[in-house]
Write a structure and sequence with these properties.
- Pathway: Pyrimidine metabolism; dTTP biosynthesis.
- It is an enzyme of class 2 (transferase).
- Its EC number is 2.7.4.9.
- Helix 2 runs antiparallel to helix 3, helix 3 packs antiparallel against helix 5 and helix 5 packs across helix 8.
- With 217 residues, the protein is α/β, with parallel strands linked by helices.
- The protein has a single domain, classed as P-loop containing nucleotide triphosphate hydrolases (Rossmann fold, 3-Layer(aba) Sandwich), CATH 3.40.50.
- The chain is built from 9 helices and 5 strands, in the order E-H-E-H-H-H-E-H-H-E-H-H-E-H.
- It has a 5-stranded parallel β-sheet, with helices on both faces.
- The radius of gyration is 17 Å and the shape is globular.
- Magnesium ion (MG) binds next to helix 1.
Length: 217
């Protein structure tokens, strides 16, 4: 029987953190770990490059197109809004969503551009009212360390100085409720902690925890 059929909603588990800290690795492991424990879970990621808006974002990230900084920020945000209805339906039906990046990336990255008018508060405002995560797992790692990892590549934002600004912005967004894990630990150790955090959130949501909205924490 699905969780929805048992009357509980699914949990929204979010992974955030600097580039190459291991978000995608942990998201995949967590979805498998949850599913193997009988918790119906799906992996989502932002940007979702499969939609029409996502394709515009993809072209921008690969430097195939250029765009005004406010405009591309709004597209990243719209890419989340366009999936809100489905997100709410999935959670209500008992499916747990493990999501790789969200509005926190949106704000941390755009504000790192330091453009007039595009400060942290403006960046946050376009996502205000979207569903908030039930658990935000922040993978913490100095930029110098993430640079040593495979895969740091040629996309638009993959520049050392820019990444430092992004990490500073994550620090400004950080809340006590975030579950901060040292991302330099082994993949297996991190997975064990993430699974514990996620199972706790799944149980809370199953037993009635209401879904919050950004940025009300
Ligand atoms: N962006 C934005 O501007 N606005 C928005 O609203 C949103 C995003 C949502 C999308 O990148 C870009 O869009 C991103 C933010 C911006 N810009 N940049 N730069 P993406 O999400 O598609 O990026 P990615 O290519 O998936 O990279 P990533 O997410 O930064 O990496 P990761 O997922 O954190 O890491 P990983 O792929 O899991 O691991 C990286 C490598 O490290 C890999 O070789 C692993 O095997 C290794 N790894 C992982 N964990 C470990 C541990 N624990 N030990 C050792 N090695 C490890
Ligand atoms: Mg990733």
């Amino acid at each position: 029987m699905s969780q929805g059929a048992m009357g509980g909603r699914g949990a929204f588990i979010l992974f955030e953190g600097a580039d190459r800290c291991g978000k995608s690795t942990q998201c995949k492991l967590l979805v498998d770990g949850l599913n193997s424990r009988g918790v119906e879970a799906e992996l989502w990621r932002y940007p979702d490059r499969t939609t029409a808006i996502g394709k515009m974002i993809d072209g921008y990230l690969q430097s195939q197109t250029d765009m005004d900084d406010a405009c591309v920020h709004l597209l990243f945000s719209a890419n989340r809004w366009e999936k809100r209805k489905l997100m709410l339906e999935k959670l209500a039906s008992g499916v747990t969503l493990v999501i790789d990046r969200y509005g926190h990336s949106g704000t941390a990255f755009t504000a790192a551009k330091k453009q007039p008018g595009l400060d942290l508060e403006w960046c946050k405002s376009t996502d205000a009212g979207l569903p908030a995560p039930d658990a935000l797992i922040y993978l913490e790692m100095p930029v110098e360390e993430t640079l040593k990892r495979d895969g740091f590549g040629g996309e638009r934002y993959e520049k050392t100085e820019f990444q430092r600004e992004v990490v500073k912005n994550y620090e400004l967004l950080r809340r006590d409720a975030w579950k901060c894990l040292d991302a330099s630990r082994t993949i297996e150790d991190l997975h064990a902690d993430a699974l514990k955090i996620a199972m706790g959130a799944v149980e809370e949501c199953r037993t009635g925890k209401p879904l919050g909205t950004l940025w009300e924490d």
